[in-house]
Amino acid sequence: MMNQGRSVFGKAGSSFFVLKPNSMKAAILKNLHEPLVIETTQKPNPGPGEVLVEVKAASINHRDVWIQKGLYPRITTPIIPGSDGAGIVTEVGDGVAKSWIGKEVIINPSQNWGDNPDFYGEDHKILGLPDNGTLAGYVKTDVKYLEEKPAHLSFEEAAALPMGGLTAWRSLMTRCRFKEGDRVLVTGAGGGVALFAVQFAIAAGAEVWVTSGSDQKIQRAIEMGAKGGINYKNPTWFRDLLVKARGPKTGYFDVIIDSAGGPGFAKLIDIAAPGARICFYGGGTGNITDIVPAKVFFKQLNIYGSTMGTEQEFADMVQFVNEKQIVPVIDKIFSLDEAEQALRYMDSGQQFGKIVLSI
Ligand SMILES: NC(=O)c1ccc[n+]([C@@H]2O[C@H](COP(=O)([O-])OP(=O)(O)OC[C@H]3O[C@@H](n4cnc5c(N)ncnc54)[C@H](OP(=O)(O)O)[C@@H]3O)[C@@H](O)[C@H]2O)c1
Asked: 20, 119, 150, 332: which is deepest, by most CB within 10 A?
């Protein structure tokens, strides 16, 4: 923890910084299309209803890459990115119980959702833009977005959970109304969100299948409990997957969770079981094309979009993780100094699971 009264040395990664009182080290995006820079900056001051969290670990999401590339709405710079963090409450603002101080917490990045569980209100925001995020020594947040860190998780594991876990939870449980006996397909299983969907569906007792651009990642998903998978780089992957799963030509999967969109989405329509629910929360491979309307309406398919989640869904997701003792899959841990390398590593698509920064 930093000393408030005098200069101290702060260490992250291999370099030393002289930290003045009330300052902290942070990874800052100063301008679009530029690398993150590591600088000392003003430590945030918690206002009424807010807390200051000393960030012990943060994780990155593809959102951070999209923001850096200018491919995200309403970007303002400079900004400290980072939606996911786990740490210790060190200060509380007016109106917040002092008993929070010293608590180990994770932060719900989906803030100001509003009263309608079906759709967020116009004030909804995600930690890390427009407010400064977790790639820093400290972050401030409203106390209502704190959940106690699951005791079975390290700070690094807990920091991997918030955005990916929440997005997967709402997509699978709320939007697709997952029920026992569902056969679930998760596409691009190596992704941070996707792997939570795999873990949650397996923990809930589903028969889970995956796609990935890497045979090795498919194998790892199988080792985690998935029944099988197929490489989406194979042009006949959708037909081959039905054969592997011994499903009828009319389609096999009751629930499909996707973040790719793009031309491959139309194939998901082909392999969805009649009456299936398909949810996508990303469009990584571009616009969805070539959907044949008759296939959707004759099969009575339900296609949903999902973004983030409510406070209740975040609490339910954390409770499920505690109950099932789920441990997020971490691909690689970087230091805060290596934040830019962590973004580039994510951009390269090599990861299986989450990319974490130890702060
Ligand atoms: N709506 C929301 O609230 C929300 C929240 C979080 C993320 N997202 C979005 O969801 C996407 C994933 O985010 P993330 O943080 O999980 O990123 P990530 O860890 O970088 O995952 C991206 C994944 O996309 C998969 N992929 C790439 N090409 C594919 C293809 N042709 N078909 C199927 N899958 C493909 C890859 O799977 P393999 O490695 O297995 O090939 C890769 O792991 C991003 O677009 C992000 O912006 C949305």
From this structure: 150
